[in-house]
Amino acid sequence: MYALARSLLFLLPAETAHHLAMTLLSIWFGIPPVKYWHTRKISKPPYQLPTRVAGLEFANPLGLAAGFDKNARYYHLLHLLGFGFVEIGTVTPRPQAGNPKPRLFRLTKDRALLNRMGFNNDGADVIAKRLKSRGKPKGLIIGGNIGKNKTTPNEEAVKDYLACFEKLHPYVDYFAVNVSSPNTPGLRDLQRADALMDILRALSGASAALDKPKPIFLKIAPDMDLAKLDEMVGVIKESGIAGMIAHNTTLNRSGLLTPSEELGRLGSGGISGLPLQAMAREFLGHIKETAPEMAVISSGGIGTHQEALHRINQGASLIQLWTGFIYSGPRLVSQSLAALAKQDRQTPGTGRFI
After folding, report:
1. Is position 351 within any domain?
2. d(CA 197, CA 235)
3. What pTM value is reported for the model?
4. Domain that holds residue 339
5. Lowest CB count within 10 Å: 55, 78, 184, 309, which one?
């Protein structure tokens, strides 16, 4: 069924198709017997693979990365597809329209997407109210991916990240600090060790002041060498945050099957999907070799259940889908969790799942 739906949705512009798909999903899960059936379904194996990371207990280690549910409109529906966690955002303090449309494109030959969305979102106040009014489904972990507004100078970025933290912390379970999107001018400059340390220390202090501190993860770009990656690991350790999300979209266009002429017509933006697979594997392997104790959420290029299993076996604490979910559909969730559950049954006592 999804193959047919995808073929029809792919006739539409990518951003239009996304909103239509979410509208149809809302209608589908608005049918009480359907919602009841899915709620029962995800309460059983393989959707229940409890995983404890950074003091949080996840129903399973498979999540949906930020950018899919930017404005916290659909997380309760996505939960019914079996995701153990959904990361909303990126959220900025003030509402932001993002870059001009069109800004999201399919690279079907590469099973990839190109986007230059530009942190389009309703702003932290509206999103916090939406989270408060809608509440959180039982068993779902919600992450809050936060960033700075485009008009905020990098010298004042700390204020934006703190503002988002303060408004969202009652309603999300962990935070992802986004300094790695390629679509906000100058944002990646915040990956400098000194600038990054200022942001992470401020957020870590704000979290420590809460009755129940919220874990904080740093989301990094893939467009760095291993020496720079080691620097990021060092900053995370020194700041005392929970871990890393590796990683965001890439500006690297080498080796793509999509013709360069077509890429030129589409314009600038970050690429996600299958082209990130080798980068994500390399980053994850290097981090687990040099800092085996660090919690890592692996994201990028997970388009099959075999790849999901591979990342967990590489040492990922959790994994996130996005582009692979667009191309493969909900089956990717069920197949990935079934593969993890099967391996867990065959190798009991490993302590991978609670």
Report:
1. no
2. 6
3. 0.97
4. 2-346
5. 55
